[in-house]
TrEMBL record:
SUPFAM superfamilies: Ribokinase-like (SSF53613). Belongs to the carbohydrate kinase PfkB family. The keyword Glycoprotein does not apply. It catalyses: beta-D-fructose 1-phosphate + ATP = beta-D-fructose 1,6-bisphosphate + ADP + H(+). This is 1-phosphofructokinase. It holds the Pfam family PfkB. GO terms for molecular function: 1-phosphofructokinase activity. Coiled coil: none annotated. Keywords: ATP-binding, Kinase, Nucleotide-binding, Transferase. InterPro entries: 1-PFruKinase, Carboh/pur_kinase_PfkB_CS, PfkB_dom, Ribokinase-like, Tagatose/fructose_Pkinase. NCBIfam families: 1-PFK, pfkB. Residues 32-307 form the Carbohydrate kinase PfkB domain. Catalyzes the ATP-dependent phosphorylation of fructose-l-phosphate to fructose-l,6-bisphosphate.
Amino acid sequence: MSAPSSPGSPSPGPSVVTLTLNPALDLTVQADGWRRGQVNSAQAYQQDAGGKGVNVASFLADWGLSVTVTGLLGAGNPEAFEALFQAKHMHDAFVRVPGLTRVGIKLADGAAQETTDINLPGLAATRGALATLDARLTALMPGRPAFVLAGSLPPGVAADFYARLAAKLRAAGCFVALDTSGPALTAALTAHTLPDLVKPNIHELEAALGRSLDREAEVLAAARELLRRGASVVAVSQGERGALLVSGQDAVRAVPPRVTVHSTVGAGDAMVAGLVSAHREGLNLADAARRATAFSLGAITRLGAHLPPRADLDRFAAQVQIQSAEQVEPA
């Protein structure tokens, strides 16, 4: 694992680069049984440097991969992020911009096993900051690391930003994973060049495609459509039902065991991290599904974007049921 380095200095050759344009300081409040409109008591709280790409990087660093983090970070309150990057030996290539990084509030109800998110808007991106970021991304492309483009877009960033960046990265021979929603996902899925890995949840996929996907066959058909247009793997998470993973050669459903949920924050980010680590190790689709589901289980059984020990991950992976999705023709 590489040693910490100063912001913006050249990368020693990461395995993975994660991009977070709209990071957040996640304030997670454990308030079991809280009720709307009433005075509630909390049992605990913690604040973590977050944002989808930062979370993915944190999980990957725990797994032992060399990770570079980049994106746009408020210069007024970077301390929690810098401490995380240093503690987990992540290379910091974030562009500092004037102002404060936003706060995201997570109300974790352990009794109901659900989390309510309140996301504040991020700092507006300027043309100069985006130009500096583009130069850093270009400098990270040699060596062809995997790139993870994750999270929402802040004000000032066009909806097709990820779509254009994915095309640039794939043209350079880099593997690209995308985890976003809303107009950014719609733009990426309707672009000429798709990311290699797309991981929406079922609701995000329905919104991006503009149609409901009520039956398994419809979800499979939607995934196969994306594969025909250039994606390599489509992973659709469906909550307690698990996740459906589809590649050109196979289609499997990963069904997780029941566990005690401490917080759902970071579950999807952990799944992305598991899939990216599986790609780096050349795992087949079934083993990738086990890995990704184990990462996600590790995330929801604790607070914060941190993996449990590998023995726990191995135990989770062994409990994941892999079901073959029948009657699926190769894409």
